[in-house]
């Protein structure tokens, strides 16, 4: 008997997250096996993209495979980084509906069925948003993390209509992903990069409100270097989206200055002739 076709892929970028892999995978499939799950568990695969952690993650995944879970691990030895790991996972995915989530359990696995089901030919992007109705934004975060998160969101608002473009809990259809060009593999917020460079229309974005969970194992990846990378990414995206408009404005200003200069010189010549 042949195995069911995989229609959904869950991509999990990971670095030294071995302690979270088992609870993450088991909770994902437990949610998918609930009677009211809109997505069949046997049509879903989980892909761990590990940046050569050497922390037992490979052995952990092998154990889960032996227990019947459809999970596999890709170990990268020549590159690192969250965004490039997500892109690699999307490239390797068998499903046409692809979801990205963190390994640290802050993106609740119980939301996976709803997130996957929100993807369709008309909704090519789904975003887990912390700004939805009934959600207390980052309630378990310290004040400085809340300020950083809110500030980062405000800086991105001119780029997209999405309510939470900073979210790392998002999904995209394969056909939309393949349209993206020039993705920033060094960037920190790959969802924002994809929204802009895959040219996702506002009406094609589905949003699912969720509340952040609490990190169970491992350490936060938020550092000063990461924040600088984000600012660099923002600068690149602003140029990518608005460079044409900036060129038009520059040409317009040059033309206006030339006309003003000609008018001024004409008036100056006229006044000199009347002396």
TrEMBL record:
InterPro entries: DPM1-like, Glyco_trans_2-like, Nucleotide-diphossugar_trans. It comes from Cristinia sonorae. Signal peptide: none annotated. GO terms for molecular function: dolichyl-phosphate beta-D-mannosyltransferase activity; metal ion binding. One of its GO terms (biological process) is protein O-linked glycosylation via mannose. Its EC number is 2.4.1.83. GO terms for cellular component: endoplasmic reticulum membrane. Keywords: Endoplasmic reticulum, Glycosyltransferase, Magnesium, Manganese, Membrane, Metal-binding, Transferase, Transmembrane, Transmembrane helix. Component of the dolichol-phosphate mannose (DPM) synthase complex. Its cofactor is Mg(2+); Ca(2+); Mn(2+). This is Dolichol-phosphate mannosyltransferase subunit 1. It catalyses: a di-trans,poly-cis-dolichyl phosphate + GDP-alpha-D-mannose = a di-trans,poly-cis-dolichyl beta-D-mannosyl phosphate + GDP. Belongs to the glycosyltransferase 2 family. Pathway: Protein modification; protein glycosylation. It is found in: Endomembrane system; Endoplasmic reticulum. Pfam families: Glycos_transf_2. Transfers mannose from GDP-mannose to dolichol monophosphate to form dolichol phosphate mannose (Dol-P-Man) which is the mannosyl donor in pathways leading to N-glycosylation, glycosyl phosphatidylinositol membrane anchoring, and O-mannosylation of proteins. The chain crosses the membrane at residues 238-265. Residues 9-177 form the Glycosyltransferase 2-like domain.
